[in-house]
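Quick check before the chapter quiz. The format below is the same one you will see on the exam, so make sure you can read both the input and the output lines.
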Amino acid sequence: MAKSYDLVVIGGGPGGYVAAIRAAQLGLKTVCVEKRGTLGGTCLNVGCIPSKTLLQSSEKFAEAQHELKEHGVDVKGVSLNLEAMMARKDRIVSNLTKGIEFLFKKNEVEYIVGHGTLSGPNSVTVSLNKGGNKTLEAKAILLATGSESTFLPGIKVDEKQIVTSTGALTLGRVPKHLVVIGGGYIGLELGSVWRRLGAEVTVVEFLDRITPGMDGDVAKNFQRILKKQGFKFRLGTKVTNVKKRKGSVTLSLEPAIGGEAESLKCDTVLLSVGRRPYTDKLGLDTVGLSIDESGIVPVNNHFQTAIPSIYAIGDCIRGAMLAHKAEEEGAACAEILAGQLGHVNYDVIPGIVYTWPELAAVGKTEEQLKEEGVDYKAGKFPFMANSRARCNGDTDGFVKILADTVTDKILGAHIIGPDAGTIIAEIVAVMEFGGSAEDVARTCHGHPTLNEAVKEAALAVDGRPIHV
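Here is the expected output.
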């Protein structure tokens, strides 16, 4: 006999586990099916959490090597214990995944370890990791299976010499020369880790800029800062072939617009050209659900697919592939299923790059506003003029706020600087409530704090910054 539920969630990542917990809180009998064997999805296991852990550890190593002396702290004989660094990363991941299991028990969410596939509009067949199959019946089914790394034709990943983000988190030694294919968030973060630990890092990007989609002013400054940190860039360049030999990898490169080919030799390649939805092994055809050419599952405003009992969220549907976007959708979908009015404001979902300095953005870029013909004002304030940034020795970057010329409503904000990912939350909150640059400018900010740069940028929208 198939066991019956109100909701079956396929996928235990940020979207899936949040949806399951929220649904259970609202009184729905809920089960979550996850094949990995540990909860948290890509984000917690081989993505956000391990990468940020290594970013933090590598920052401390670089700080001990190069920066503490300026603070009057003399450190001699600094050496890298990569094994201990990796062990710390694994320990943090393990503790957090177990934490989600605890939350499932606390909220009475059933957890089944196995691969779930659709076997009907209201049924899921689970191939259990421990062997055998189990059928689950439900009033609603939620697809929250996340995404996987995108591959390029002719590049065979072995996760040792030619790696995706997964392999880049478990390298047993520091590469001598790491080539990152792709100039987006993930590649630059992981490139930063290995650059700080001693690797030569070259970024090969097909476009003529890094961080596509980010504000052009921010991207330009970001590249300048990364160059100062030792990064090398080959922009407007495509990779046509990759040949692996023992101990080395040779890439064939050509200008993106066409031209003479050349080779680039290294010992490790990180393939980081984006991610694709994990939707091709869910049995969608069994129930007549189709996906688009990108693997995206079409849904309506309530996350409902063409089959009324089947829903989808996170990387499975359109929008930014971000853990916090999936979490918001998971909670909103659960609330809708419980008869409430869950919603997600897609105009105020921040994007963050966790290098140092960090990048953070929300809303429109200047390029988008110009393209849309929106009349706007820009206010900009450098961290070089912020007292706390000077105290901390973190003066690279700036805060930029874009506001409507007539209404003063904040349309976008872009930060490159220390703790940008945390600082931008203030602007996100103001934008959520339709606030203006004047609202931020007239809000008292503690002194000395990094957030004072936000206040000054808001003042600059009206042409009246105080400290620059």
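If your answer matched, good. The mean pLDDT is 97.
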